[in-house]
Amino acid sequence: MTLVWRPGYGGAAVSDPDAQAYLQAVEVADNQALEQGVQQAVNQFVIGCKNDGIWDAIKASCILAGARTLSGALVPLVGTAPTNYNFVSGDYNRETGLVGDGSTKYLDSNRNNNADPQDSQHFFCRVSITPTGTMAVMGAGSTDPGSSNTVFVGGIASYRSRNNLTGGSSTTHGLGGFGASRSVSASFSYLSSPGVVDTTASTSESPFVGTMHIFRRNAASTLISDARLSFYSIGESLDLAALDTRVSNLITAIGAAIP
User: Fold this and answer.
1) Range of the domain at 162
2) Whole-number Å distance between alpha carbons of 174 and 178
3) Which residues have C-beta within 8 Å of that of residue 42, sequence separation ≥ 6?
4) Is residue 6 in some structural domain?
5) How do residues 207-246 score in pLDDT, each as one tens digit?
6) CATH code (residue 31)
7) What's the distance, Cα to Cα, between the start and end of the chain in Å?
8) What's the pLDDT band for 61 if we cut at 50, 70, 90?
9) Is there a domain that residue 129 lies in?
10) Pick from 227, 255, 251, 243: nearest CA to 123
11) What is the domain count for the chain?
């Protein structure tokens, strides 16, 4: 067994048990301790999500920043660890996240698009560098019935949430949080700009069967991305604006804590 020094555990740095369990697992994967500021950032994020009432809706998630190694970054905050396809340590930056190559590199979240109720679903990611060209950021299905994905076309992000037709579009920002959340059958909400949520009419369909992929769609047309991402989350419906704010604060705090 490798012994890892964990400064602040049991004290002021980490008070939430879910944050502590995650940070301990990251430090074991890294084989070294994290800065106290990084620990505090994660702790405050988890506490904040619980205070906002959105923590329990997160079923699969990774903080793709903060950890000292790629192995640490792929430790799940919630749920099952993703399967790594072709990312190497040089693709990872502690402050800005993991960058794709637009060709062969992606993550399989191992969370099936049909694991959550048809009318209770969210998916979210934080983009540090936007993709070039027509590329997917995450999703399952393409134009198939019940698809869930976000795709960049000409710098504009469009969404599907359990539907085969393009729904909402994000036209006003190139960085930050991107995501959609469905809580009713007739429509879904999506982030149109940082912290701003719009709603689009779109009738839900039986969910496409397939695991959600990150940096591409799990579909016949994958559209593998060269974006850089620092966080993703998949699960039941939640307050997108609240999640976006919490993730933004988390990534900012992590960047400030890293020398």
Assistant:
1) 17-257
2) 9
3) 14, 19, 22, 23, 63, 66, 250
4) no
5) 999 999 999 999 999 999 999 999 999 999 999 999 999 9
6) 2.60.120
7) 29
8) very high
9) yes
10) 243
11) 1
Residue 159 carries which DSSP code?
Answer: E
Q: What DSSP line would sit under 236-249, residue for residue?
A: S---HHHHHHHHHH
Beta strands in 24-182 (DSSP E): 58-63, 83-85, 92-93, 97-99, 106-112, 121-129, 135-140, 148-153, 156-161, 169-170, 176-182
Q: Is residue 96 within 8 Å of 65, Cβ to Cβ?
A: yes
Reading the block at residue 24, the tokens are 């301990």
Instruction: Compute φ and ψ for 253, nearest 5 degrees.
Output: -65, -35
DSSP string for 176-220: EEEEEEE-SSSEEEEEEETTEEEEEE----SPP-SEEEESS-BSS
3-state helix, strand, coil in the chain (%, to 5): 25, 35, 45
Tokens of 22: 């995650």
Q: Which of 147, 138, 140, 166 is nearest to 227 (CA)?
A: 138
Beta bridge partners of 148: 140, 161
Task: Report which DSSP code applies to 30.
Answer: H
Number of neighbours of residue 166 by Cβ within 10 angstroms:
16
Residue-level length of the chain: 259
Mean pLDDT of 134-159: 91
Residue 45 domain-assigned (yes or no): yes
Q: Classify residue 10: in a domain, yes or no.
A: no
